[in-house]
Design brief:
Length: 506
């Protein structure tokens, strides 16, 4: 018996009204996504993905390619703009809105429940930001929702749904590797004799083959580059330490904030209420929430784990909340709408009032380590900085930085006019895709204008260039105060590009 808490949508007229309201809701929210996407400056990760999209490849060192490839047609249509870079995120958010409807119908609900769910998701910072922010996580969350929908259908006896599950897993893997946790959704399906009977037919195996074929770009890139992307995912992405609860508590606390404390706690209570439901479809939903939290919580026992990796659990958890009746729906909508408005205002205020906010001393040294009011200085004066770098750079010179944020931001803000390269002179393994784009022979003898807001790498540069001279810095001034200082080092005749500017041997 379906463990639902309400009687469905009612008559056809009511259903049509709910459908029209839902379509109006997603249209309005999509417009909001586009407005915020245009208003908020691109982050370091976003311009990194943009630069990756200018270098089409099977995959990239630290990311698969789906969300990056998807930017290309929008860049061709909309130009090199923030909206073009963020259109894939806007589209997958729209796709998730349409995918919620058939999933919720299978659980006994309809358009109204889908509308409340989608609206409440925008009251969570993790989903609201993900609906316009260019990231691989947006593709992951949407693919996970597709896998949940397919797994629920399989649990209800649909053999064809194996094709949907395979498609979601394959495309999800091309978006972000953690989609592998969705395999856990099959546990409640295969725990029942009816589900295991599907394994006596070719459908699940053919769907698995299709899924594997979809992931081939990742394996082709790995084969071409000594499996460095796979090694990075297994060993290099996280620094491991002794087992303890520090990172686990950090992961849970940060995820609770990203879900919104009120909604996060309510989702947890609703999940516990569903835990004893015997219906296989709801068992899939329960596992869908628990799976990412348990898997990444396990890794957090000895390594820092990004709280956004728990995003799929928040999305599916909202479905449980809407069905739970823990809070009256009108109250739930008011709470969600209020939080959503606050998130929107806070996001735009952080951009529009970056200068005064950056002067307030506040920071958090946990995960991510970049959380601080001082970090807002990174959005101040970027256009001025780009113009200053352009003025100092000759036509034959390359602009480089140890910061993947800075180097790709300069490329984007100059509309691709600056020739930029990442220089790995401070260690770190994130954002290194560009080290696989250029051969050593293409870099030897290059003259480089090196820019950075840090210090401590002059000796490394002097070891690989014939000559290094530091010039007067670029200063971003507001009133009588220097807000940012960018060091400028003019480097002549690159002698040894290997390991610093490229990892390629050819």
């Amino acid at each position: 018996m379906l463990c639902a808490s309400f009687d469905g949508e009612g008559d056809g007229e009511t259903e049509m009204t709910s459908k029209n309201a839902y379509l109006t809701l997603i249209a309005g929210l999509t417009v909001l996504h586009l407005v915020v996407a245009a208003a908020v400056p691109l982050s370091g990760d976003e311009v990194y993905y943009w630069d990756c999209s200018r270098h089409v490849d099977w995959a990239y060192f630290d990311q698969p390619g789906l969300m990056i490839w998807t930017m290309i047609p929008f860049r061709m249509i909309l130009g090199e703009s923030a909206v073009a870079v963020r259109m894939p995120a806007v589209l997958v958010s729209l796709l998730s809105a349409f995918m919620l409807v058939p999933l919720i119908r299978r659980l006994g609900g309809g358009w109204k429940e889908a509308g409340i769910t989608y609206a409440l998701l925008h009251a969570t910072p993790i989903y609201f930001v993900g609906s316009f922010y260019a990231s691989t996580d947006a593709g992951l969350v949407t693919a996970y929702l597709g896998a949940v929908w397919a797994a629920v259908a399989i649990a209800q006896g649909s053999r064809r749904a194996w094709w949907g599950f395979g498609l979601a897993m394959g495309l999800g893997f091309l978006a972000k590797f953690p989609i592998v946790v969705a395999v856990l959704l099959l546990l409640p399906v295969l725990a029942r004799r009816e589900g295991r009977q599907h394994l006596t037919t070719p459908t699940p195996y053919l769907a698995a083959v299709m899924s594997l074929v979809l992931t081939l770009p990742v394996w082709i890139w790995a084969w071409l580059h000594q499996w460095s992307n796979i090694a990075f995912q297994l060993q290099g992405r996280h620094a491991y330490s002794q087992i303890g609860l520090k990172y686990t508590l950090e992961f849970i606390g940060a995820l609770l904030l990203l879900a919104g404390p009120v909604l996060g706690v309510t989702i947890a209570i609703a999940w516990f209420k569903r835990l004893r439901c015997s219906d296989p479809a709801w068992q899939v939903i329960v596992v869908a929430v628990a799976g990412p939290l348990l898997v990444f919580g396990f890794f957090s026992l000895w390594s820092r784990v990004g709280p956004h990796w728990g995003g799929p659990a928040v999305l599916v958890g909202m479905v449980i909340l809407v069905f739970s009746n823990l809070i009256k729906r009108k109250v739930l909508i008011v709470i969600g709408a209020s939080i959503g408005v606050l998130i929107s205002l806070a996001t735009l205020t952080a951009v529009w009032a970056a200068e005064p906010l950056s002067e307030v001393e506040w920071s958090y040294a946990g995960r991510p380590g970049r959380i601080s009011t001082g970090a807002l200085k990174a959005v101040i004066g970027n256009d001025e900085m780009t113009r200053a770098v352009q003025e100092r750079t000759a036509e034959h010179e390359i602009v480089a930085s140890e910061s993947y944020t800075l180097v790709h931001l300069l490329a984007f803000l100059s509309n691709g006019e600056l020739t930029t390269r990442l220089a790995r002179v401070r260690g770190g393994d994130h954002g290194l895709a560009s080290l696989y784009w250029y051969k050593p022979a293409e870099l030897v003898g290059a003259d480089v204008v090196f820019v950075s807001e840090r210090s401590g790498f002059s000796e490394k540069l002097e070891a690989i260039f014939e000559r290094v001279d530091e010039e007067a810095p670029i200063e971003i001034v507001r009133g009588d105060r220097v807000i940012r200082t960018i060091r400028v080092l003019r480097c002549r005749n690159l002698l040894q590009p290997k390991d610093v500017f490229t990892r390629r041997a050819d």
